């Protein structure tokens, strides 16, 4: 729906998805899932571990306001995350766009590199950052604010984590849809026919072709994708964080008891955050995002 190369700009989400399945098969909306899965693991490992570390440092050592700390931590975490996910996103979006000319992930990567060079994989990086930095800042702040209302004791509460995650993702997605439209335009241009270069040119092109409403193409699909994705992501992340911290406390308890009876050193405390991010990343491979095109 957002792709410049698509000739069906006025079709609804269900119509585009239906035509896609009818003409190209039931599994057509899942194209590109491989590259999304491969990129999501390391990207989210950096993402969540950087966020947790910076949030802890800013709030405890420098006494920075909580909301400011959450937003700033999300910004820096996004820079690392997007460095890995931008190339994966380019391939995924080209595979998913309506009437995609690519047969598979490797075919897409080879043709993109041969025709447009390595820079094509990072053409939208600045736009990605311009979109994701405000998105993640809003996302993290909205999540933490929602947590203060749904989970004031800050204990492990699956229902509160899911509700907070869904609200945060939906709000952030709606606000940053115009930037997502520009990013998608840059990522999905036809090979060998570079019509738009740079964020400002993308903004100008979207306005010329669609007017003010052109910046909100795919808004409902984007919100529909982000709300369940962020709800599942935060719920999964918080579960594994709780699980690993609990295991760490148990290990400390066993260590103390062993010291009391002189049976040697105990087990070290468990690190939390990093091991669980691969699981938390899984919702982002949900390719309902294809309905945005």
Provide a brief overview of the structure:
With 293 residues, this protein is mainly α. The protein has ten helices and no strands. Helix 5 (125-150) packs antiparallel against helix 7.
Structure description:
The protein is an all-alpha fold. Helix content is 68%, strand content 0%. It contains 10 helices and no strands. The protein is globular and about 60 Å long.
Low-confidence spans: 257-293
- Outline the biggest β-sheet: none
| Ends apart, CA distance between termini | 3 Å
Sketch the topology as an H/E string, one letter per element. HHHHHHHHHH
What's the count of strands? 0
Which band does the percent of strand residues land in? under 5%
- Overall structural class, as computed from helix and strand content, comes to mainly alpha
Nearest-angstrom radius of gyration? 21 Å
Helix content class = 55-70%
Overall, the morphology is globular
Total helices: the number is 10
- For the residues shown, what is the average pLDDT? 79
Quickly list its features:
10 helices; 293 residues; mainly alpha; 68% helix
How is the topology of this model organized?
Elements: H1 13-24, H2 33-61, H3 66-96, H4 105-116, H5 125-150, H6 158-175, H7 177-187, H8 199-210, H9 219-260, H10 277-281
Helix pairs in contact: 2-3, 3-5, 5-6, 5-7, 6-9, 7-8
Protein name: Mitoferrin-1
Solcar repeats: 65-149, 156-243
Organism: Nezara viridula (Southern green stink bug)
């Amino acid at each position: 729906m957002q792709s410049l190369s698509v000739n069906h700009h006025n079709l609804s989400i269900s119509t585009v998805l239906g035509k896609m399945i009818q003409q190209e098969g039931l599994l057509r909306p899942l194209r590109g899932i491989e590259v999304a899965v491969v990129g999501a693991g390391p990207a989210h490992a950096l993402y969540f571990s950087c966020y947790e570390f910076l949030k802890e440092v800013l709030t405890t050592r420098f006494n920075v306001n909580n909301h400011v700390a959450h937003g700033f931590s999300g910004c820096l975490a996004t820079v690392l995350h997007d460095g890995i996910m931008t190339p994966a996103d380019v391939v995924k979006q080209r595979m998913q766009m309506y009437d995609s000319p690519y047969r598979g992930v490797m075919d897409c990567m080879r043709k993109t590199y041969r025709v447009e060079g390595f820079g094509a994989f990072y053409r939208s990086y600045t736009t990605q950052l311009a979109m994701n930095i405000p998105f993640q800042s809003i996302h993290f702040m909205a999540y933490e604010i929602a947590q203060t209302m749904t989970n004031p004791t800050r204990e492990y509460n699956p229902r509160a984590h899911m509700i907070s995650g869904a609200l945060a993702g939906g709000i952030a997605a709606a606000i940053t849809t115009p930037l997502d439209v520009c990013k998608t335009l840059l990522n999905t241009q036809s090979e060998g026919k570079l019509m738009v270069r740079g964020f400002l040119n993308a903004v100008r092109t979207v306005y010329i072709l669609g007017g003010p409403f052109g910046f909100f193409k795919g808004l409902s699909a984007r919100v529909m994708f982000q709300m369940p994705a962020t709800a599942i992501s935060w719920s999964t992340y918080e579960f594994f964080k709780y699980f690993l911290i609990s295991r760490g406390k148990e290990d400390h308890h066993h260590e103390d008891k062993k010291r009391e009876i002189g049976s040697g050193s105990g087990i070290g405390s468990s690190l939390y955050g990093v091991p669980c991010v691969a699981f938390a990343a899984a919702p982002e491979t949900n390719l309902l995002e294809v309905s945005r095109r």
